[in-house]
Design goal:
It contains 13 helices and 11 strands. The protein is of the alpha+beta class.
Amino acid sequence: MRHTIYNYSKDNVLLIPQSLHGMADARALLCAGNAGIFYKRIDADLTNVEFHTDCPCLVFIASGVENFTPSSGGELTIHKNEMIFLPKNEYFISDFIKQDAALRAYLFFFDQHIIDKFISTHNTPAKTASKRPLPYIFKPSNAVLAYISALRPVYEQTRSSTSLVQTKLLELLYLLSAEDKTMKLSTALRQTPPPTNKRNIMHIMKAHAQSKLTLDDFARLSGRSRSAFNREFKLLHGTSPHQWLTKTRLGHARDLLLSTQQSVTDIAYLSGYDSPSHFINLYGKEFGETPSKTRQMI
């Protein structure tokens, strides 16, 4: 049985493009090594998917709306007939909430050989290795839309070859560069960001909020020092990680008190607290009543 993106991402970080092979809801139209063109279709809500880009990627949305959040925060929303550039060596969170259409998207991955070939035949800016390229959204031209619309009808049943994959990806780069007056894409492709272990802070906090992890553990998982972790979290979310974690754990405990018959001791443990007395004290400060008093509301 093939994985879906949802099932795989519950316990794993997607490494793209490698992790997309064999998925039930994503398939390669053309592929040679890490270079390739993939098509994905998601028919139900798919949120909090963490992935890492192993090479530069362009994503085109054919229907639906998808949100991308890089490790540094700041959500990017991409709509139908828009593209987003995702740089190499970056962690992202993606979210799709189905409204009136399934999410249908094309993903284009460029290996270094294709990038070098494009650069050698195109007037690109000088390499700037010191700057990490940022993801950005843009609207492709009609020529690019026509190029994309032909991909599935022409190549869905075509056997991939290295030369064909390179030709099609280079064709896309040339079409995009014809409209790229500021040479933004060309500049981004020239940049070679070093690998980063920085992951999305809030994603990690939400995923492990009820665990016994300390704030030092959270900082280490996010790829940051404790001071950088605290500073970036407060800058992005307006509160300290300690305050957020306490409020989240206590909110989870309140939900359990109102929806289950588990003991206060068990609920304290399930909410990340080893000491029931410490949990009861914090709960009283947050809600102005004891856990037992909350339970009487059932």
